[in-house]
Amino acid sequence: MFRGGVGMRHCLLLSILVCVYGGFVEPPESFSLRSVAETETRLPCRFDAQGESIVQVNWNKVQADGTTELIITAHHTEGTVVGRLATRVRFRSKDPLSESSLLILNTETSDEGHYTCQVITYPSGTFQRPISLTVWTSPISLLEPVILEEGQTFRVAALCRSTAHPPPTLSWDTDLQGQSQNRTGEGGRVSSQFSLHPLRNMNGKKLDCLVSHPTLERPHRIRNTLVVHFPPNAVVSGYDGNWFVGREGVEVTQR
């Protein structure tokens, strides 16, 4: 028995260990990027290591068969090593371990695909962020005019062609009465033909092809005028129906 005793209390101190891992400043998750062929493309990648050490940074591209190809790598002691795209890629920063964005110096359509920025830290390990790149090409376009003759049946008056990725959209700017027909082929090729029944009053009228594409701020106009050949229309002026030798004041003109 204890009288006036002091109770004993045991206090249990719980120590909570909080692990703070680094994270990507850019790009955000599920990041998609569009670029245009023959321009410089920046694939963003910047990682906040939260005080840990970044040992290595790798850029990889996923091939069509699902395999991964190493494009470029930066190591904290061994420096930078590039793959088969050495002539067209480099790190954007002189210190790729702190700012790891990739530059494709002269983008090609073959560069389209899925990339991964992989950051290896110590002691936490490996972090990676995927990027999807779409490469557009500017349209290459031409218009093939057709010389028509009055009296011909309904036929093609002009043919417009264009190739790009994604495929362009073709339309016609004209006041002529006719019909257009559009076709789409492989490799981003499209064509549009404008057909009509040729009349002489159509000669010299506007028949322009308009090429629309996401790479263009406004539709590209290919200017064209319709050519319709027709026989001359002789007009006699100053004649009252009475012909005689030495008659003057009579004139024949063609319209």
In short:
One of its GO terms (biological process) is homophilic cell adhesion via plasma membrane adhesion molecules. Helices cover 0% and strands 51% of the residues.
Report on this structure.
The structure is a single chain. 0% of the residues lie in helices and 51% in strands. The chain is mainly β. It has 2 domains: 114 residues, Sandwich (Immunoglobulin-like); 84 residues, Immunoglobulins (Immunoglobulin-like), CATH 2.60.40. Strands 2, 5, 6, 7, 10, 11, 13, 15 and 16 form a 9-stranded mixed sheet that branches. A 3-stranded antiparallel sheet has the order 3-9-8, with no helix packed on it. The protein has a 3-stranded antiparallel sheet with strand order 14-17-18, with no helix packed on it. The termini are far apart. The relative contact order is 0.14. The N terminus is likely disordered.
